């Protein structure tokens, strides 16, 4: 798995193939198919590795704080490697992941003031928002890097952390979006309203 994670980090999702992994490990491609019967299985295993820290989250009794901590942790997991959000999205779409973010989040929302049958929908909404926002963030960063304006390293005059204005703007939009979704959950809506 370390080799697969290294390929993802260095070359991105496009180059994360079973054949490339076999070459990297100086092994026969057939040997890799013993461990990963398809590229989808490989992506699912990589997604599980990316999402593993989510399984450590525990409810604190404050559903808002727990939901916020979850979204921050999910975003961190997704941005820990190049194309992380796309890898996780692919793993979820092909049902090859064992760590399902919405299933991890749902129990943290048990005390939210919404109908219990809406908790899964609320969890899925937060997860889909973070996935989509992170795909957008990572795509913009890659395009900027190709254009020679790498958003990950280009600091602004008023930013002491070395974070570009574009990266900071993505972070603000994600935080505001999460706050809006949590406010909607806190409003205690019911299905069909």
UniProtKB/TrEMBL annotation:
Transmembrane segments: none annotated. Residues 17-36 bind DNA. It comes from the Bacteria. One of its GO terms (biological process) is negative regulation of DNA-templated transcription. SUPFAM superfamilies: Homeodomain-like (SSF46689), Tetracyclin repressor-like, C-terminal domain (SSF48498). Keywords: DNA-binding, Repressor, Transcription, Transcription regulation. Pfam families: TetR_C_1, TetR_N. Residues 1-54 form the HTH tetR-type domain. This is TetR family transcriptional regulator. It comes from Corynebacterium xerosis.
């Amino acid at each position: 798995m370390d080799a697969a994670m290294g390929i993802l980090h260095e070359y991105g999702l496009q180059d994360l193939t079973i054949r490339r992994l076999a070459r990297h490990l100086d092994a026969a491609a057939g040997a890799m198919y013993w461990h990963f019967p398809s590229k989808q299985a490989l992506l699912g295993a990589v997604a599980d590795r990316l999402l593993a820290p989510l399984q450590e989250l525990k409810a604190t009794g404050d559903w808002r704080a727990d939901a916020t901590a979850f979204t921050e942790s999910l975003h961190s997991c997704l941005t820990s490697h190049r194309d992380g959000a796309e890898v996780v999205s692919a793993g979820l779409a092909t049902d090859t992941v064992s760590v399902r973010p919405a299933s991890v989040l749902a129990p943290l929302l048990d005390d939210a003031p919404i109908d219990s049958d809406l908790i899964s929908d609320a969890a899925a909404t937060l997860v889909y928002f973070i996935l989509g926002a992170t795909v957008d963030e990572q795509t913009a960063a890659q395009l900027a890097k190709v254009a020679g304006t790498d958003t990950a390293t280009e600091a602004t005059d008023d930013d002491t952390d070395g974070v570009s204005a574009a990266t900071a703007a993505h972070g603000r939009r994600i935080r505001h979006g999460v706050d809006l979704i949590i406010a909607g959950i806190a409003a205690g809506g019911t299905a069909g309203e």
